[in-house]
Request: fold
Amino acid sequence: MISLLQTINLNKSFGGLHITNNVNLTVETGEIHCLIGPNGAGKSTLFRLLLGEYAPSSGKILYQGQEITRLKPFQRVQRGISVKFQVPGIFKGLTVRQNLEIALQSRWKGKELQEEAQRLRTFLHLEGNAEERAGNLSHGQQQWLEIGMAMSLKPRLLLLDEPTAGMSPEETQVTGEMIMELNQRGVSILAVEHDMDFVRQVAHRVTVLHFGKIFAQGTIDEVMANEEVAQIYLGEPAYA
Amino acid sequence: MTNKKMTMPLVQCLSRVNGPQTLGRGLGFWIPFAAVLVIAFVFPMFSDDYTTGNVAYFFTWLFMAAGLCLMWGYSGTLSFGQTAFFGIGGYAYGILTINFGADNGITLYALGASILFGAIAAALLGYFLFYGRINGVFLGIVTLAVSILLERFMAQTAGPQWHIGQARLNGFNGMNGMPALTIPWPGGDIVLLAGPGFYYVVLCLLLFVYFGIRILVNSRWGNVLVAIRENPERAEMLGYDVRKFQLGAFVIGSALASLSGVLYTCWGQYITPSSMSLTSAALPIVWVAIGGRSDITASLVGAFLTLILFQTLTVNGAQYALIIMGVLLLVNVLTAPEGVVLQLLKVRFKIGRRK
Amino acid sequence: MDIGNALFGFLYQIGDAAAFLVLASTGLAVVFGMMGVINMAHGEFIMFGAYGTAMAVRAGLPLPAAIILGSLAAGVIGMIVERLVICRLYGRPLDTIVATWGISLIFSQGILILLGSSFPGVSTPFGSFTVGTYSYSWYRLVLMAAALLLLFALWFLVNRTQFGILARATIQVPHMAEALGVKTRTIYSLTFGLGAALAGLTGGLYAPTMTMVPTMGSTFILEAFVTVVVGGADIFIGTAPAAGVLGITKALFTSWQGQLTGQIALLVAVILVIRLLPKGLSGWMLKERT
Reply:
């Protein structure tokens, strides 16, 4: 079985700073995989490497067995990788309806587009907000809208950068359910997260990143039992 | 069955005249619009040739304004190069018609060829800019540099060695004497000098462009364009090749500037390098900023009104015209950055409360 | 000896062109590099400096004092503009361009109305000297020296004085600077004023070599913009080497085919450099470093 996503000895340096350090990460088809680790561990950089915003200093990225290291971001998106960044990347000046339509129109048209938009709005708990300016939504709603937009590309792999950042516990719960629902529908997910309850709720496998290197990989219980990981977290100021 | 197949996309196309990216839908907008249109069509019958020609003169500039609105207002690309393409269009028309004459509809071909020439130049420059990831302020400076480069180059082409075929470039004084638009007609070609004939042709072109842009910006292409304006990174992450869309808007917008250039040259039978000067480059920005760059109707109405204002000022107190333009621009940016006309239209049509 | 003369001539031309670019662009570079503001009225501040200098000379002041006065006048006007307009437009670069363009129109047309289409100028001091068969102006050598001196003075100001340190802090992390009690509003005003004063200084320095017309700023403005844009945001590792590179290009083409070709070559070079290095020279150099 070929992994859905695989990085091979991925490295990224900015001048003297070696941010991503020989990372060999795999995401299997159908799993929800969480990337955890202290701040500054290089998670965002890794994401941007996977997306194609940064070019690696060395190493390869394989998607469905094919090398995508040289592809531009929009090309990777067209192949089925989709992203939701930490800061809501929605079109704040446009309405919710417009946001979804712009995301959907690359794969849908006409009547089906409208129907899918309707379905999405319901799924995202945003039915009543179709004509509202996206910038006026609450933070949690903006995050959901963006997940919705990322979903409308019918991706195989969804990259989520801190999907529950800034959310209340209720919103976090809803987000977790959304993610698991998406996973049921066949989307594999790689998520960067800090909220351990959330990770426990959704993750099949977990990878710990520290100083740009992979420290541990496995189920959340395996990883939490790992002594080195405990040290990383105990050595840092109190972590959730 | 075939009739239905052909009319379906046409109907779909026409339905896009209304949409999220343009103000005004429904009878509340289109009835006043129709009224204005009727006035525009009967105007020459109630007016003398000179005034009609003058209004037509204003119309010729509106294409450039429309182009800038498309690029700046819808796509987020502030190009200072409109006057460069204006000049390219005008000079191209001059060169072609001076060399090949006005018979057999050559002037009409020259019109088309000049716009095409402008579009190709825009494609080259645009490719250079967008595929080189040059945007924002830097793009503004480069397009400004191109305009001024052309102006300085053309300004020093005095002297008989500067000619293309029979057309002398004539340096600072510019090219003149080229034929006006001439429509071949059995029994005597129709020469469209600055008067009612020219007026109607330009008005029809204007309507075509206006509706064309409305349909374009409300289409799927337009949706992406607006998304790029709002958040280019996000648009890229949705799988769109941002550079292609920006280039498309740039080519269309600049080609419209070339159209303005050609029509201006047809109107007055002259074109000079000063159309591409630093001051000239500011003017389209003024019109579109005051009108409201994010909507085509607001832009055109604002441009038209500002042009009338400018001419009135120039005629009645020449020195003050530019100062007042400057003040208007400043006040506009500080108090109504979205555009004065746009603000008014929004209030009138209650945008944002679609029910 | 002929080669020596030709070489001198060539070096003179390069120095002249580079000095022009440095002097024309430092004011703009300060404002753009430190505040991200593109000031389309830059040419008008140059004009204010020139006019101020000319007026001061006519009132009897010696040239150096007149130049300083002209520069100060431009600086003060700059600070007023910043307080009234620019400060409302931070974070809106395209709007700033539009607004300053409006200001530029107001200033140039305003002076046209107030003082007429030309103004009595200042004559070039020091005369000329000969090398080989060509004569050169001493004053332009003075200008070259002034350009170098200016760069040094700026470097000193930015890196060694309190103002410089405060300014850099404010511009990089405004809320931190405020939290530390720095009056950020004042810093912004002073920085913009500095940019305007530098423009005024350029106007004053070049006043003896030009005719005084209200639109005289336009001679400088395009070259200033392109130098700043090619240089990128940092004055010392950007604007200065950019002036050097572009100066050489311009001098080369001018001596080959004349003034206009030199100008065109300059603009073409700019377009090429931007294409290869979208963040300008300093952006490229900083990338290498980090």
